[in-house]
Amino acid sequence: MSSLYQHGTLAMLMGKQMQGTASVAELLAHGDTGIGTFEGLDGEGIILDGKVYQALSNGQVVQVTDQDVLLPFVSVHFHEPTEVLPFSEVDFGTLSSKLEKFQLDNIFAAIKFHGKFSHVHTRVVAKQTIPFPSLLDVSKNQPEFHRDDVAGTLVGYYAPEIFNGPTAAGWHVHFLSDDKKFAGHVLDFSATEVDGTLQLFDDFIQHLPIDNAEFRDMSLDLDGLSSGIKASEGRKA
Amino acid sequence: MSSLYQHGTLAMLMGKQMQGTASVAELLAHGDTGIGTFEGLDGEGIILDGKVYQALSNGQVVQVTDQDVLLPFVSVHFHEPTEVLPFSEVDFGTLSSKLEKFQLDNIFAAIKFHGKFSHVHTRVVAKQTIPFPSLLDVSKNQPEFHRDDVAGTLVGYYAPEIFNGPTAAGWHVHFLSDDKKFAGHVLDFSATEVDGTLQLFDDFIQHLPIDNAEFRDMSLDLDGLSSGIKASEGRKA
């Protein structure tokens, strides 16, 4: 039995709360693998083997070694997989059906696999300044990237529909190439030579920055929240 | 900093998952204070000072000493309050406004207070048999009770709106009289001589029964979920 730890919520990003509220040191205390974003929505984060990488909106990727760098939203877990992926080829459109026997619908799970990607389509959110906009507004004008024939690792989570708001329901996955030069939030992909695992969680630990005054003051447009999250996080496939 | 631990979700009860999946022993490992319900929706649970009480739909209250009794849905925490309630009189209609300075909107909190209740209005769900119905159907025909001039303890939680589904957003509180003869899920109350506390949580730990086959198979009517929860849990005030 294992735990998925999440600092912040996706709803907070929709509610313009992009101030960093958890440090790299804090997130690494709760996992060695995961995904997130940085203060001011400064790119996409991917955590692999305890190392934190940041995909920037100019297309570059940097490794984050400063333990004090802050994040508003991040999900991490310790990589202790329970299942081996039962396929060698997959794309975003077939991922769920190829995992049907694991009955993910109502639970939290992590996926992590290495593969040869014939195509990866990513977005990388761009750094915002105060006063922060909503994630939905940011995502309407986001840098997107395409890369063909690239080897790399895809990592991320499946979350049940009822947790859309706290997090993104369905799949939310990021990519990092082996050469550490291409990364981002995955909108679409197609991969062969897939070698990876699935990890099922019985605990979802939602951590909230209760000492942050802006977060405590936040008012959310709940009517548009669910559809807004799907619009801002959704894959294009 | 402290944690609120929840086994199961309110959505599961809406999805007819009333089989018990956590034992009294398991819940007491995660808290000494809380609220819940029992296998088959057999009454309302209230946990105080590490003791578990069960309000039955015939109006009786029993103490549950068998550590193997099962629950499908329960929320618990260790009572380590952070704030003293700043009022001596309160009713359900004024509770939120009297706590406004604590800015509970976006966070999880526990409330626990003793008082003299001029009136308490409760419901106690009745035990269901397989095949289980939805909580919404059960709540449409639920035993309700009224008691005037009763001393007792109110305990329960505030949850942010975005967690409606995993749990009940807003206030979800249960009552137990000092003489342990009157208890239930609170629909309305009015109290004086209030003496109690508030506890703010930074972690909400959502535990799911991932080894339970019926839960894994569950399909939810998501369209009606949010309104259904409010209809089935909502206070009458």
Largest interface by Cβ-Cβ < 8 Å: A-B, 31 and 31 residues
How many runs of DSSP E, i.e. beta strands of chain A?
15
Residues in helices of chain A, as a percent range? 10-25%
Mean pLDDT of chain A: 95
Class by helix and strand content of chain A?
alpha+beta
Catalytic activity (chains A, B): (2S)-2-acetolactate + H(+) = (R)-acetoin + CO2
Protein name (chains A, B): Alpha-acetolactate decarboxylase
EC number (chains A, B): 4.1.1.5
Keywords (chains A, B): Acetoin biosynthesis, Decarboxylase, Lyase
Structure overview:
Chains A, B: InterPro entries: Acetolactate_a_deCO2ase (IPR005128). Chains A, B: It comes from Leuconostoc kimchii (strain IMSNU 11154 / KCTC 2386 / IH25). Chains A, B: Keywords: Acetoin biosynthesis, Decarboxylase, Lyase. Chains A, B: It catalyses: (2S)-2-acetolactate + H(+) = (R)-acetoin + CO2. Chains A, B: GO terms for molecular function: acetolactate decarboxylase activity. 2 copies of one chain form a homodimer. With 237 residues, chain A is of the alpha+beta class. Chain A has a single domain, classed as Hypothetical protein, similar to alpha- acetolactate decarboxylase, domain 2 (60s Ribosomal Protein L30, Chain: A), CATH 3.30.1330. Helix content of chain A is 15%, strand content 43%. The first copy, chain A, has a 7-stranded mixed beta sheet. In chain A, strands 9, 10, 11, 12, 13 and 14 form a 6-stranded antiparallel beta sheet that branches. Strand 15 of chain A pairs antiparallel with strand 15 of chain B, so a sheet runs across the interface.
